[in-house]
Amino acid sequence: MANDTTKIDSFLTLSDIDKLVHAPARLMILSYLSVINRADFTFLMNQTELTRGNLSSHISKLETAGYVKVNKEFVDKIPRTLIRITTKGKNTLKKYRDNMKGIIDSLSENGG
Amino acid sequence: MSTDYSKSDTSNDSPSLGSMNLTPDLPKIKKKTVHTLNQDGVLDISLGLIFLFIGIIFLVDSVFNYEIPYGGMLVVLPFILISGEIRKRITFRRLGYVDMHSTRHLSFAIAIIFGIVLVLLILKDIFSIRVEYFRIIPFAILAVLAVCFFIFAQRYDLKRYIYYSLAPLFGIVILLLPFSRLKLRFLFSLLLIGVCMLAVGFVTLQRFKKDNPILSDDPDVQKDIKVKNKGSRLFLQDGLNEIFLALNLAAWFVIFLVFKTIPSFWLCFLLVIPPVLFGLLSLYMRKRYSAIHLEQNKVTTYVVNMSAVRNFAVMFCVNFIGFEVVTNVGLVDFFKPGSMWTSALIFAGLGCYYCIIALKYRLPQLLHIGIISFLCLLLYFLDTAPLSRFIIYAAIMALILCVNGIILRIKFPQNFKTEEVPDGK
Q1: Among candidates B20, B96, B221 on the partner chain, residue whose Cβ is nearest the Cβ of A46
Q2: What is the ipTM of this complex?
């Protein structure tokens, strides 16, 4: 009975998961951005191995949600499209990690 | 994060149980990012150069008894700047641009190391204490270096840093050997570390260049670079640079003639006013009359601002060296005040500036200003005082610049029409 309750709790937590962050490519983009200060489009493309169109589409979605900020800045006199994670993005990623960890832990504890 | 994301579906927003093991391992991602960024060997080269030059500076000081001032430590600064330039030209063109938090920490660490060395040097002189008496210091420095390299190697999975950590340990062995003075043995150890890091760094850099071809820039960035170059080229043709430089030379004359009796400090202060004033005025006029033809965006604003900064810098250099010519203060010991070389510096400097921008932006109408400035070096064949020579030069240049500026300004609308300036994003 207790096991069933835990499983139900796990699935309730699962419904709390931010679907926008849960997509693997976007999760990876947010993860990379969280460990650096800022990066340009080319660096992210190189690291994530996503195609230009794919990355652009994911970044647009993240920008619309307010998780990342895309800015055109001059670095060493060269114009660059720089992407950085926002505080909201960092908090969302942290919450996502905690939720996922909780779900995986509870499932493994109960042999799920 | 081992799944291949390259084939991920952009429309897949639903959480899938198959990706439940995808809790991002942030330390691992950071490790991978730092590892990627340090594949280029630039850090090795810059650290190697720093060790090498610190070693050489102390060696000259110790072996040849040639007292090098504390400013000698600044010799290493260009190497830090060079490393930034290498990263900009080689690494970022291959990997893309990234600003790591750790880069700032590294700069901070280098600054602290320099601070400590500088304080030790000053203390050495103030209290007349010889470095040899701090027998423990060389051992401590080498041990700290070995530990730092080892931790860096372990933390970011950079195997070559493990070998670097062996070099300071080898240095400690050298310190224990009974030959020559301790200071010389320590310097030899520093030189050894420097040479090792430099050699490995160069090999790593070559390998990195071979393994990573240059990536094509983001199309948006390519477009912006194009707008920036065209904008810069256009603003060099509006004649404002020349007009304000001529006005600055005239202002220099007026200030010098009217205020030549006041103390040098105030004269120096007054000579800063024209560059600031004319710099701001050129910024205003360029925004009002030249930049209106271009689309108003971030790139145009940047180009306009940078052109004003460049104007200010050129005018400031002219006034500063002019001040050196007319006074005997000598703000910089290197330029022996009033010597022929001081004014030659300005002749050649302005000549180089105009020749470079004329060739870089393919503007033959600016080339003759540079050539005339160079030709003014012939004034040295005249048997006149440095001040008279500088006044003749300034008068010639003011005239040439003024005439050119007015002609360029009149021709600017025509020049603008012939330039194809693409729309900025």
Answers
A1: B96
A2: 0.80
